[in-house]
Amino acid sequence: MKPVRIGTRGSLLAKWQAEYVRKRIFQATGVETEIVVIKTTGDRITQAPFSQIGGKGVFIKELEEALLDEQIDLAVHSVKDIPTDVPSRLCFPAVCRREDTRDALIGSQGETLAKLRHGARVGTSSLRRASQLRHVRPDLDIREMRGNVDTRLRKVDSGEYEAIVLAKAGLDRLGMSARISEVLSPDVCMPAVGQGAIAVQARIKDADLADALAPLDDNETRQSIVAERALLGTLEGGCQVPLGAWARFERHELAMDAVVCSPDGRNYVRQRATGRSDQPRELGQRLAQLLIDAGAGTILQEVYRARG
Question: What three-state secondary structure class fits 174?
């Protein structure tokens, strides 16, 4: 039997995630696998903003094409990189147990967000992070930056940026947690939809392979992700948007907070909702409507109009 081919991006973090899945598959099933590195649009074009090169899908499009063309058998993604629209012939048989959802600040001198000097240059690739940071610290010079984790850390070390913000889960996975100056509370910086979670994508027709991945699937993580992605799908049209959401189980029910913030940080809408754990999609859609009713729709429409 040929090894199952697992497709991944080429970054250190992406390869770590693919290796994690590879080990989990072998432990659960004894099936041999091999990792296939595929370069995506997001990896090739590292200077332009995400909004100019295709938004969220830039990190998974080529992996999905390789799946559909049967060049690989599985693809491993960070859930936060997955658009709400995915090819109908593909599915996600496994969503692995979620790690820390929060963002982390890395200061060049170990500064916390409150201790950064007035006008300090802070780098992030995320409009969501930039908007929320401007809401809390409008005096900061927030700039868009691209590149993998190593590249971004080097820009802090060289003094190009006084601080950067990255997902804590990625730093933890790469053994770089010691670089963190401050873990940002969701009250300060609401995480991205799907942040901290890894999903395995497969072809729907490969039912036996999908069934073999069942031991990797974490139900609580999956339900939380379904709720967050239902909210995202209700609110946005596929572009990078200043939206954060965090769903989790609390006392046997599903609770979710979400934020929409204007790019300049001035307009800020936050809502919370709870619901039955077996109805995550309904919870996400209901919370989206609460946000719209509170003014989030106007903020998002302004973002879309600014991008033409």
Answer: coil
Residue finishing a domain among 159, 184, 209: 184
The more confidently predicted of residues 45 and 289 is 289
**Does one domain contain both 86 and 201?**
yes
Other CB atoms within 10 Å distance of the CB of residue 213 = 24
d(CA 232, CA 11): 26
- From 81, 103, 206, 257, the catalytic residue: 81
pTM over 0.90: yes
pLDDT tens digits for range 247-258: 999 988 999 999
Do 173 and 250 reside in the same domain of the chain?
A: no
Euclidean distance between CA atoms 5 and 166, whole angstroms? 29
Structure tokens given for 256: 């979710």
Span 22-41, pLDDT tens digits:
999 999 999 999 999 998 76
Query: Do 58 and 130 belong together in one domain?
Result: no
* HSE value, Cβ hemisphere, 13 Å, CA-based, for 100: 16
Domain match, 165 and 276 both: no
pLDDT at res. 2: 86
Pair (70, 25) in one structural domain: yes
Give the structural domain span for 240.
227-303
Q: Is the pLDDT of residue 45 over 80?
A: no
Whether residue 112 sits in one domain with residue 31: no
Query: Does the active-site annotation cover 141?
Result: no
